[in-house]
Amino acid sequence: MASQTDTSPATARSGLPALRACALGFIAAALLAAGPALSQSDPVVAKVNGMEIRESDLTMAEEDVGQNPQTQQLTGDAKRDYLVSYVADVMLVAKAAEGKKVGDQKEFKSRLAFIRNKLLMETLLQQEGKAALTDAAMKKVYDDAVKQMGAEQEVRARHILVPTEDEAKAVLAEIKKGTDFAELAKQKSKDPGAAAEGGDLGYFGKEQMVPEFAETAFKMDKGQVSDPVKTQFGWHIIKVEDKRTKPVPEFTQVKEQVETYVVRKAQADYIHKLQEGADIERLDKK
Fold this sequence. Notes:
Strand content: 5-15%
Radius of gyration: 30 Å
Order of helices and strands: HEEHHHHHEHHHEHEEH
Low-confidence stretches: 1-38
Helix content: 40-55%
Number of helices: 11
Distance between the termini: 44 Å
Mean pLDDT: 87
Structural class: alpha+beta
Number of domains: 2
């Protein structure tokens, strides 16, 4: 489907969980600054020394710890209890840090400023990506990708892999006598994955196989068995089961990939536009 190039470190992230290193202090700052202005749609779920923990705090906490393998296994009440406990710990430690004037330290202020800029960047890029995600944009990406695919040919083949040419000739002689190819592959082939399936490799394009194998397979007709073919892996006897034009996947099959591409491209284009209008100076180099 459409290529998803890594256009920028920023475009590889679509949410907020990227702020791992400084999450504790930043979430704490957000929680302590929230105040009473939150609406009734964001109810208080707990209190820590009088400080409120709201539903939105649990959402932020879940985003922050969501990639942790241990927390991914939690569900229902167990997960909610963990999140409440996590936010409570954040608030308690943050309050203690305030008492020790940690917020006045130069290193903290520098780090907080960096995190603020990063969060602003990620939030804006998320919004730009969401705005670009229209049905028309996704359809265009899909249609363009289909055109690029063209009429690519595929072959479905079986093979039997053996170490030497003499063994390959012996296998071919058995096939010519009428021995079933699939059964012979299970008994003789040194390709364990394919051998278990009777040597079946499924459908593949020409670029998916080593050149010697692909050249032979794509020249053969359906039902034909090859002479021994040497590759870097050994000697092959190939049987072509079918040939077809590669089917185009339905939009629903690749919708998630299309969405990701549209979002990342919109984000990359937005960054590039800002870069073009920016005056970036390097003072550490002549």
